[in-house]
Design a protein that fits this description.
13-stranded antiparallel sheet; outer membrane lipoprotein receptor (LolB), chain A; globular; 265 residues; 4 helices
Length: 265
């Protein structure tokens, strides 16, 4: 009986470690599928295409979209914080007269009138979404203290077998990633956040598809869909995606002479 109990205790203790080993192996395979070292050395990215927004499953807006992203140098050794990137989102035909800029922990709505600081809730939602994003995690957060990967099972997603991995950081943020078995590319991710007003627990889902080589062996999805509370809220269909374009500082920093408007109340 004592031998049986010892064996049972050893098995129970080994299960989490086994899940973490399998989860780490799956994440390593996903990183390799995305381009490995070429993905890790990606400095910037330019996505152009069509964006659709939805309200209660009905189309509420569509426009030309250009999303520019630059990755910043993260601390060495890796440390929690960030996000370590800058992003400019432009919707419409005139990118200089309408954009949203996230830079150095701040955010602005840019128009011909000037730059208006974004509400704190918008900044926090951008930060939270970025820190949970599987592509950002693989590019910027690997090696961060307390970051673990656990395989949580296998499923069928859109008629494709997938492996499911939970990514958990030191602050107990968790994102569940679905990796297609045949390619090891991420096809879905799920995380939860709290509504800042109601404290309601919100499910945030993203679905990725139509991966293509966007330069030097880096794979990136050309279609991205986002859902909240089970309802579709956003779609991006890229016509082109390019990496390491040497995007200039002018895209990500406010001009010194730009008027700063009062925040909206």
């Amino acid at each position: 009986m004592r031998v049986f109990l010892l064996a049972l205790l050893w098995t129970c203790a080994a299960l989490p470690q086994g899940r973490q080993e399998r989860g780490k192996r799956l994440i390593d395979e996903a990183l390799a599928a995305l381009g490995g070292e070429r993905f890790l050395s990606m400095q910037d990215r330019l996505e152009s295409g069509r964006a659709f927004s939805f309200f209660r499953e009905a189309l509420s807006g569509l426009s030309k979209a250009t999303i520019s992203t630059r990755y910043l140098t993260r601390p060495t050794p890796p440390a929690p914080g960030g996000p370590y990137l800058r992003e400019r989102q432009s919707f419409g035909n005139n990118e200089d007269r309408g954009a949203v800029l996230f830079t150095d922990g701040q955010g602005y709505q840019i128009t011909f009138r000037g730059a208006r600081p974004l509400p704190s809730e918008t900044l926090e939602r951008f930060r939270d979404s970025t820190l949970h994003n599987v592509f950002y995690i693989l590019r910027q957060r690997l090696g961060e203290p307390g970051l673990i990967f656990e395989q949580s099972g296998s499923e069928i997603f859109e008629n494709r077998p997938v492996d499911v991995v939970d990514i958990i950081d030191a602050d107990n943020r968790t994102v569940t990633v679905y990796l297609e078995k045949s390619t090891r590319l991420p096809v879905r991710q799920v995380f939860y956040r709290r509504d800042p007003q109601t404290r309601e627990r919100l499910e945030e889902v993203a679905i990725f598809g139509k991966y293509r080589d966007v330069g030097g062996g880096v794979q990136w999805p050309y279609t991205i869909q986002r859902f909240r509370r089970g309802e579709k809220i956003f779609e991006l269909y890229s016509d082109s995606v390019a990496v390491n374009r040497g995007l200039s500082d002018n895209l990500f920093l406010l001009p010194a002479d730009m008027k700063i408007l009062k925040p909206l109340r």
